[in-house]
Amino acid sequence: MNQETIKDWFNDTYKSRGTSYLRPKEAYYIFMELMGAKSGGKILDVACGLGQMLKVAKDYDMDLYGVDISDVAIGMAKEALPNAHLSVENAESLPFEDNTFDFITCLGSLERMLDLDKVLSEQVRVAKPGARFCYMVRNSERMSWKIVKQGLGIINKKGHQGAKSMEAWTEIFNQQGLKVDRVHQDQWPKKRWSRWLSLNDRITKVDYKEIMKPVSNMEQAYEFIFILSKK
Ligand SMILES: C[S@@+](CC[C@H](N)C(=O)[O-])C[C@H]1O[C@@H](n2cnc3c(N)ncnc32)[C@H](O)[C@@H]1O
């Protein structure tokens, strides 16, 4: 597997599935709430895909920046967000000055990076001191991941090579000069089911305070949401 294979896989996926490959826009407000975002500021979404996160950040009147390795994704994101600064980049090298951004998000993507240390150090470099980060990352310890996917060998290796435990992610982030403020369990898988089962349970009804409640079974999280700040 190499970078070209990963890029081709995402290009094909976006061409065939479009936004149906991703969560609906409404499911991204939670990340802004968890970062404590108010109005204004500069946000960079690394591996921005079709720009779902940036569409939400637009509602917060932010200056929008996004990069992705998929040219298909960036083309589609540009159509949806003509005023955003969007470019095709490998996240291992970001074309921005030091200390530029107030908020950095990277959702469902860090586990897909081939050189995670480079990717993280670049984000820390371009973040302002005290900038807030939101990372959503795959949990390697969840039963369904460990036994069903790894055990049966049906992990999509082109897209999910690097799931890790919460402790392993925490250590990597600390080593890069990031302070972990909080870790939450992603609620989307649960919400998606209840949304399908009940026409009334619209995602817009999600109270973000629900996600703030401490949970005892973090090891069964499908994905973790890390809220961090630059030390
Ligand atoms: C599951 S998608 C998530 C997209 C978006 N963050 C979201 O949540 O809507 C993962 C994204 O990572 C991008 N990606 C993978 N490796 C990358 C790299 N090295 N540099 C930049 N983007 C990358 C893919 O093209 C894809 O758009």
Layout of strands and helices, then pairs:
Elements lengths: L2 H15 L11 H6 L7 E5 L5 H7 L4 E6 L2 H10 L4 E4 L12 E7 L8 H11 E12 L4 H10 L13 H10 L2 E8 L2 H10 L10 H5 L10 E8 L1
Parallel strand pairs: 1-2, 1-4, 2-3, 4-5
Antiparallel strand pairs: 5-7, 6-7
The chain binds S-adenosylmethionine.
Question: What features would you describe in this structure?
Answer:
With 231 residues, this protein is α/β, with parallel strands linked by helices. It has one domain (3-230): Vaccinia Virus protein VP39 (Rossmann fold), CATH 3.40.50. It is 36% helix and 22% strand. It has nine helices and seven strands, in the order ααβαβαββαβααβααβ. The protein has helices at residues 3-17, 29-34, 52-58, 71-80, 116-126, 143-152, 166-175, 188-197, 208-212; strands at 42-46, 63-68, 85-88, 101-107, 127-138, 178-185, 223-230. Strands 3-2-1-4-5-7-6 form a seven-stranded mixed beta sheet, sandwiched between helices. The longest helix is centred in the N-terminal third of the chain and has 15 residues, at 3-17. It is globular, with a radius of gyration of 17 Å. The mean pLDDT is 87. It binds S-adenosylmethionine (SAM). S-adenosylmethionine binds at residues 6, 10, 22, 47-49, 52, 68-70, 73, 90-91, 107-109, 112-113.
